[in-house]
Amino acid sequence: ETGVTQTPRHLVMGMTNKKSLKCEQHLGHNAMYWYKQSAKKPLELMFVYNFKEQTENNSVPSRFSPECPNSSHLFLHLHTLQPEDSALYLCASSQEGPGGGTDTQYFGPGTRLTVL
Amino acid sequence: GQNIDQPTEMTATEGAIVQINCTYQTSGFNGLFWYQQHAGEAPTFLSYNVLDGLEEKGRFSSFLSRSKGYSYLLLKELQMKDSASYLCAVRDSNYQLIWGAGTKLIIKP
């Protein structure tokens, strides 16, 4: 399944580094999402973009900065992260945004992030 | 607060049947999803229930009772490849997805 791709798959960074995660969807969807997945915890929604406009920001620290240049691409820019930010970061897309009739989300494989 | 409860881990035998339960307390209800996630891979969509009753899809079935705030995922004729985590998610009145922590299913030969 290559509908939603994410790069890199693994990332190790220091607390002073700046890095970016990339997500691309090939499904023709209009909404894209960033989630954080920590071990044995529920998925945490971070950001939602609908038709390139940010519609959700669930109290995410400013050290995470999203960018959505078009409906197919989504970035998550990272800077001065903390060790507790280590997690699996998942990207998802759906035909429509939340509340739309076809908002079933399709996920990418994630980026395993380790902050030293 | 909003809450989704699922067992943390379950073990079953190859060829058998297993039922994974999900109970929820949310502000409103606009559908319930089940996803499968193999270790190190993307969650993949399994089923969607918005009305009470059983939805069958091959070896997998999902049941919903809105009055009880309860759903289950039933897996029949278990195969080793069914070893994965199963995530339950409920869409609330604001169409936000509330996720459970997932149930890790271990299949033994």
Helical proportion of chain A? under 10%
Structural class computed from helices and strand pairing of chain A: mainly beta
What best-fitting shape of chain B do the alpha-carbon axes yield? globular
Tally of separate helices of chain A? 0
Shape of chain A: globular
Largest sheet of chain B: 6 strands, mixed
The total count of strands of chain B amounts to 11
Unreliable stretches of chain B (pLDDT < 50, length at least 5) are none
Number of strands of chain A: 11
Distance between the termini of chain A: 32 Å
pLDDT < 50 stretches of chain A: none
How much β-strand is present in the residues of chain B?
Answer: over 45%
Q: Could you spell the SSE succession of chain A in H and E letters? A: EEEEEEEEEEE
Largest interface, with Cβ-Cβ < 8 Å?
A-B, 19 and 23 residues
What does this entry look like structurally?
The complex is a heterodimer of chains A (about 120) and B (about 110). By secondary structure, chain A is mostly beta strands. Helix content of chain A is about 0%, strand content about 55%. Chain A has no helices and eleven strands. The N and C termini of chain A lie far apart (about 30 Å). With about 110 residues, chain B is mainly β. In chain B, about 0% of the residues lie in helices and about 55% in strands. Chain B is built from no helices and eleven strands. The mean pLDDT of chain B is about 95.
In short:
The complex is a heterodimer of chains A (116) and B (109). Chain A is 0% helix and 55% strand.
Provide tags for this entry.
heterodimer; A: mainly beta; four-stranded antiparallel beta sheet; B: 109 residues; mainly beta; five-stranded antiparallel beta sheet
What are the SSEs and their pairings?
The complex is a heterodimer of chains A (116) and B (109).
Chain A: E1 4-7, E2 10-13, E3 18-25, E4 31-37, E5 44-50, E6 53-57, E7 64-70, E8 73-79, E9 87-94, E10 106-107, E11 111-115
Parallel strand pairs in A: 2-11
Antiparallel strand pairs in A: 1-3, 3-8, 4-5, 4-9, 5-6, 7-8, 9-10, 9-11
Chain B: E1 3-5, E2 9-13, E3 18-25, E4 32-37, E5 44-49, E6 53-57, E7 60-65, E8 70-75, E9 84-91, E10 97-99, E11 103-108
Parallel strand pairs in B: 2-11
Antiparallel strand pairs in B: 1-3, 3-8, 4-5, 4-9, 6-7, 7-8, 9-10, 9-11
